[in-house]
Structures
1.
Amino acid sequence: MRSVYAKVLAWSLGTLVLSLVAFLGVSIFVSMRNTGRGGPFERFEISLMSFAVDAHESGGAPALRTAMTRIDGQLPGRHFLLASDGRDLLTGEDRSAILAASRAGFPPRYRGHIVDAVHTSDGRYFYVSLVDPPLEFWRYVPYYLLILAAVAVLCWLLASQIARPLVALTRTVERFGAGDLAARTTSRRKDEIGELGRAFDRMAERIATLLTAERRLLQDVSHELRTPLARLSFAAELACAGEDRAEAQEILRKEIRRLSDLVGALLQVTRSEGEPASSNMEPLPLDEVVEEVVSDCWFESDSRDCRIQYQPRSEACVCGDRELLRRALENVVMNAIRYAPQGSAVEISLAADESLARVSVRDYGPGVPEEALSKIFLPFFRVDSARHTDTGGMGLGLSIASRSVSLHHGQIRAENALPGLRVTIEIPLA
Ligand SMILES: Nc1ncnc2c1ncn2[C@@H]1O[C@H](COP(=O)(O)OP(=O)(O)OP(=O)(O)O)[C@@H](O)[C@H]1O
Ligand SMILES: [Mg+2]
């Protein structure tokens, strides 16, 4: 059975048939126990018999008539009190045929009625009831068939509720697999199938983002490689021509350093994002990391005559990879030093609330145009002014920082502090 429809239908009908059979079996068993010897039904008949016998013995025929009329009025069927020879003690009629029938067959029958007979212990009185037989099994069959048909319709509806979205999901997955990166299920169901669709959508979103980012990165990398390579070949020609060897050497050295920086930075981005497991997560006092970065940046800040002012307002312990966090912070601080005017201050602060540690780095430089504030975290993005100056780097620092912070489930954002730029990193406390 290959389709969900057929499976749901078969299982539901099978369950229904089984429960009907079980229901019938239990009913027959219970009714046999109730009507059998010593069962509650027989005890009830015996108590009716003693009621009738008492009436007959204490008040004769009039009292027996009253008693039998009461019994006939309250119970279905016909009821008689007979003498041992089958004579009806109320009417005097001979009912020995009924008495004979009560001793034959199971259940005993007389003219289409079921006969129930009990007698007193001395055998002088017989109490006999003639009741209508219960409905034959085959009379129930049409009702059972009706129930089966109703259940089959419900099962079909259920099966199509399950199978239809699965078919749609399969089609979406196939479209996505065939290269349509925009294919989504957009399921609004609230059940597990809807959750499956949404999980697929999330996965597709992530894959599409990764693929697009990868493509863009590749384009950017090839574009960025062209400039140093062109300069290298120019310097190599200079050196070969023997015109200005010193300048050629300087260019060669600078461009080779630029290339190796680029490759190093790219490796770090790829590693930090591609292999989250390779990071070394441990409880980490963030103030130690900030202090390390401040002392590492001393040379750059000194050469640009910048003052780094660090105010640790609280101790904050996060769970993180020391090296990744150090580099992220270093990139932000190096930017502040690089883009700040000579002789200005770079302010670093560390604060924490109940759940987050917050490091912010502020400089007094030109800031970033509002529309570029979110783009500076993209790889190779540089504000135009940075592109055209020698101070500008490759545009990878903040993208590396942003990825490292995301790996720590944190956030990084930039805002203009007028004057200058403030970059804030927030990381959940350990
Ligand atoms: N403190 C800042 N003040 C002004 N502009 C900034 C500042 N920090 C970053 N930017 C802008 O954001 C761009 C991206 O920064 P990012 O650190 O990613 O690259 P980069 O510094 O140019 O190069 P890299 O860090 O790779 O050497 C920079 O080119 C610059 O235009
Ligand atoms: Mg930078």
2.
Amino acid sequence: MTARRILLADADAFYVAVARLADPQGAGKARLLIVGGSAERRGVVMSASYEARAYGVRSAMPMARALRLCRDALVVPVPWETCAHKSREIGAVLRRFTPVVEQASSDEFYLDLSGTEQLYGGEPLAVTARRMREDVRNETALSLSIGGGTSKLIAKLAAGVAKPVPGCSADGVHVVPPGAEADFMLQFALADIPFVGPKFQERLSRFGLRTVRDVVRHDRDALVRWLGEREGTWLYDRARGIDRAPVHAVREAKSVSRDETFATDLDDDAALAARLLSLADRASADVRDAGLLARTVTVKLRDADFTTRQASRTLRSAVESDRVVYAVARELLARLRAARRMPARLLGVALSQFVSAGGDGQLFLLESSSPDATLETERDRIISRMIDEVREKFGPDALSRGAAR
Ligand SMILES: [Mg+2]
């Protein structure tokens, strides 16, 4: 089997770069620039320029604290529509190089170029990556860092190495050749590996495992003894740069659902609405994770006497934001409760009839606020995705979704 050729393309300081292009309040020229904050009433930093980061300003930091650290910074709101537009522009340029593009976040794209060797006349992957970078820069005025290798794991870590930082010589592209994965991995801490979150790190540190070097000293059996079969094997592979996950252009799924069986039956409408909000929130996050949009929202209700009922609504355009999914789900729950009023044992939200996000023919509504609460705007989507990203990086409590409504 020939080695896979996978790239991760990641826009550099995406929100700051886009804010500079959109240029509100002269952001284009501001060295100390912070994007985020009070304009969205969430009061956190979404992104800061390299110069502001030098003062200790970080993403997800409360804005008040950021401004104490860097009092001369210009704060501008996130230019949501421009971000969405730029994100699609980058995706479109990348799809010219291969159809197998998986959008991992608003500014991160995995590409699988396996099998394109002939098409590119045997061009080394790093050379293709440099052309890609140049095209994106020419056509979107944004700069990418691109990492490459035989897996998504290697490509992701290589993109971090490629990232140009002031005073460092990285030129924006770093490709790890086939066979060099294990050596490449030795420079990383376990915390650098995707999905090794704070809780896992703490467990690992109890066995003296903090870096990849710590892990490769042990055989698979020892890791399995400490961490269990699944996680022990997973870590053994990752530490050697092994990751077989494919790049998914669109994930196959028929429906995504979340439900909850209550410890005691619930009859209070406000309590049911609160559970519905959390279920809608999780189901829509699953859909966004899969890079999909859903057209049909279904609410399932099981009454105390075990009668199970459901109500669905199919929308004219597909949605993915928790705000709209919740708005539709509330209508459906109200309809079910009006038809039969009895304490509930179980409540569920399902999303189905998927289309792929950003796919051709998808209707994007660009108005910044929509009069119909069940019409999803581009802004809803971007806000939802950004909250996913911040939560992934900083934990589930970093931002409250409710506050974004
Ligand atoms: Mg980025």
